[in-house]
Amino acid sequence: MSLPLGRPKAGALPLGGTARSAKGAPILQRELPANFAAQVIAWQRVHGRHDLPWQVRDPYRVWLSEVMLQQTQVATVRAYFDRFIARFPDVHKLAAASVDDVLALWSGLGYYSRARNLHRAAQAIVAEHGGEFPRSSVALATLPGIGRSTAAAIAAFSFGERVAILDGNVKRVLARVLALAGDLAESHAERKLWSAATGLLPEHGIEAYTQGLMDLGATICLARAPLCLLCPVCDLCRAARAGTQDRYPVKTRRTSRGRREHIWLELRRQGRVWLVQREARGIWAGLWSLPEFDSIEALRVAAADWPGRAVELEPFTHVLTHLDWTLRPVRWTLPARTPARTLTAIETRCPRGRWFDVDEALRVGLPAPLRKRLAAEAGDAAG
Hints:
Number of domains: 2
CATH superfamily of the largest domain: Hypothetical protein, domain 2
Shape: elongated
CATH class of the largest domain: Mainly Alpha
Mean pLDDT: 89
Structural class: alpha+beta
CATH architecture of the largest domain: Orthogonal Bundle
Distance between the termini: 39 Å
Order of helices and strands: HHHHHHHHHHHHEEEEHEEEHEHH
Strand content: 5-15%
Helix content: 40-55%
CATH topology of the largest domain: Endonuclease III, domain 1
Number of helices: 16
Radius of gyration: 25 Å
C-alpha cells in the first residue's frame, strides 16, 4: 500500500469547544473537528485499502468478513475467508450446513462463539427473511452475533446507510482525535463516543468514510507507535497536537489473566483417537477435543487397569486472551485386540465421546493445537 508523505491541509479546529462535555452528556456538533470526514474520504480513496476480497456490495461477504475480523488481524482472516466462501458461497449454503462443518472451517481462528452465531444468524436469515439480509442496521442488530457496530458496517457497505461504526480500531482513532478523557470501560464514555461518531458522519460517501476509519486504525493510528506524520487528520487530532497519543483511548478496567493446567489424554486404538465434544459454553465451546484430567494422579486412578502403553509427551502452554493454559499430553495406546468388555469399561471412565480416525477428525471442529498435531500425523502418513 502506498502511503502519503504528507497530509491534506487540515480544516479548522473549533477553539470554543472541548471533548470533555459534562459527564454522560453527548458531544455537541460544534465540539467536533471540521472537515474530518472529508479528509478521511479523500485519503481513503487514494491511499486506503482497495484489494480486500470482501470489499463488494454483498451483505453476505461483508457480514462474514466483519465477524471474522472481530479481534483478528486482516492477514490471518484472508485465508479463512477464501476457504469459507469456497465452501459456503452464500447464506443458503451456510444455513444448510451442520455446525460441525462450520466449526471445522473456523478451527484455528479462535473465539468460536462467532462461528456458532454466524451459523445461527444464517439460519435466521433464511427462515425469517427469505434468505435476504435486512437492509437497516437496526434490523441487522437483531440477528445472533451481530452487534451495533457490525450491523452498521454491513448496512453502510452493502446498502449505503448513513450510520456510525465503532469497532476497536475506530474507537482508538476517535478517542485520540477528540482526546476523549472518559474511560471507555464505562458506559457513559462509550455513549459519548457513539454520539461523536454519529456527529462526524458525512452527508455523502459513507462507504469510503467507513473504510477510511478502519484503514486509519489498522495501518496508521496504531495502538503503539502511531504513524502520526502520515495521518491525514493529524492537524485535527487533539492528542497528536498535545503529544499525548499514548493516553488514549482511556480504558482502566483490565481482565486479570488466569492460569490452568490439565492432563490431555490422547487415547489411541488401531489408528483411531477418542474425542469428546466440549460443552456449548466456555473455552473451545462445541469443539471436539481430547479428554482432560485434573492431574496425572487422576488419570492413574481412572486408568489403573487399562492395558497398553502410556507415554508422556512434551507439555505446552496454549495462550488465550485471558488465560495461560498448560496442557500435558499423555498418549495411551491400547492393544489392537483389546476385548470388547474392557474397551467398554475404558470408554465409560473417559468423558463421553467417540472414536475418530484421523481423516474424519480433521473434518470436524477441533482446537488449533489438536488440529495441528493430527494434521501433521496425516501428512506423515500420506508421505
